[in-house]
Amino acid sequence: MSVVMKHEVIEANRRRYEELRAAGQEATPKGLPEPTALDAAPIAAEAIISHEEVPAGWYATLRLRRGEALRIIDGSGRSSVSMIGWREEETSERLNCADTVKVQWSVALSKGRVLLSDMGRVFMSLVEDTSGAHDILVGGSTPASTLAAFGETTRNTHENFLAAAAKIGLSLRDLPPCVTFFAPVSLDEQGRFLWREGRKRAGDFVDLRAEMNLIVVLSNCAHPLDPARPASSAPVNLIRHRAPLAAPDDACRTVSPEIVRAFTFTDRLYA
Amino acid sequence: MTSPANAASTNPSSGVYAHDIPAERPWSHLLKRGQTLRIIDSEGQQAVDALLYGAADLAERYSAQDTLRVQGSAYIELGTRLISNRGRVMARITADSCGRHDTSAGCCSCESNAVRFGEMTKYQHACRENFVLELAKYGLGKRDIVANLNFFMNVPIDPAGNFTVVDGISAPGNYVDLTAEMDVIVVLSNCPQVNNPCNGFDPTPIRVMISDPPAALSSW
Question: Is residue A123 part of a domain?
């Protein structure tokens, strides 16, 4: 390639990148829906498949089919719930936090956003969300973090994930970074992590619609940045329920050109 | 693609290994406890994706989330302890003439490129292709690729949550040093991405050098 041609390709790629950035950080956020109200979005009794209460410190493993959704409810307003997961048919494909934030140009998860797998497909969609205060950077608690926080190693998310993975034939090698719901982590100008206590409310919930057939693990352990001593935790409730597939005009599917493509690639798996 | 003729050399005077990694290519090497790996951004603005695995137990590997949690902040810089998924320090950043590195953006892949930049970019070389091929030498596969380090990659995250790959700030010759605190396999991908500014839209070679600890410390 001549120097002039190479320069033209570079400039064209730079222009396209700047257009994508402007769309992703200026246009897309304006189209995001408002948070779900605490008393909105009731689940019809006949849509409920199963219900489970997970005690503080414990975990649950759920299989979710495409066409189903998971509601996670923090009834006390004191819990945080960390999640990882895999595609049921091919567990090397899993939740990918890095692609989730990179593709959406944002670490702020809220109603209308999606979680992505590492294969350019949509893992789950946040179809309802009262909170909009979740963590996708710092991760869950570990033996070391609980020892540092409480002076003793307590039940923690890392060991919950390890135990859950072992029960489905997976291991330490299969644990990806996690997302934690109801964990109001933000950053200051220097990149230091902050905990915004005022962003937690009793009864906060999210509805995560499975866009693939999934196995997910939910760990109900205090987030490592939660300053409460002793650990502020309480049971959380998980409701697995039937949810319509994402329609062509679905708010999550159409949130941005990138996510339109991710849904297209996901649909091809099941075409 | 072939390796250059001067692919690797040793310098007996300081006991070092040195290697020029061509643009877009992977590399890996054992870094023993106490040894230092210097990664040099030879021509500037070149992202270098990196993974670390415990040499004694390959299931122990670099963990971005453990590293950020322990540090309490979002960027990799001088003094950062690189923490494993078992909560142990694998290495430290012991020198840094660039000042800003990322560990939240992951590596590029054919599949994520197609989502981010359009399906016409699916058949472009990507870091995950490099990682998979290099990891195969150790019996590892795609499931072993975790959220990686991105040296010389500038990804500010603002208080509103905006997450942006912007122009790299590394000048030609800028370097970062990793000093190992356990024996680790270091796996690098000299990033081939041409669709965002992480490589100035023009991937270039990098250089790696391994040095032994100063004599006084070599009896660890």
Answer: yes
Q: Is residue A235 part of a domain?
A: yes
For residue A24, being part of any structural domain is answered with: no
pTM (predicted TM-score): 0.95
For chain A, how many structural domains are there in total? 1
Please write the tens of the pLDDT for every residue from A99-138.
Answer: 999 999 999 999 999 999 999 999 999 999 999 999 999 9
Amino acid occupying residue B188 = L
Residue A271: per-residue pLDDT: 92
**Binary contact (B119, A261; C-beta < 8 A):** yes
* For A161, nearest residue in chain B (alpha carbons): B85
Element (H, E) at A8: helix A3-22
* CB proximity B5 to A under 8 Å: no
In this structure, the number of other CB atoms found within 10 A of the CB of residue B9 comes to 10
- A98 to B144: CB separation less than 8 angstroms, yes or no: no
Predicted-complex ipTM score = 0.96
Domain membership of residue A10 (yes or no) is no
Which of A210, A232, A167 lies closest to A67 in space, CA to CA? A210
User: Which DSSP helix (H) or strand (E) runs through B47?
Assistant: none
Of B107, B116, B146, which has the smallest distance from its Cβ to A103's Cβ?
B116
CA B95 to CA A228: how far, in whole Å? 36
Distances (CA, A) of A258 to A44, A253, A270, B107: 32, 10, 20, 17
Q: Find the DSSP H helices in A118-220.
A: 143-150, 157-166
Domain of A41 in residue numbering reads as 31-269
Who's near B158: CB < 8 A, 6+ residues apart? A187, A189
Q: Is the pLDDT of residue B3 over 50?
A: no
> CB contact, 8 Å: B194 with chain A?
yes
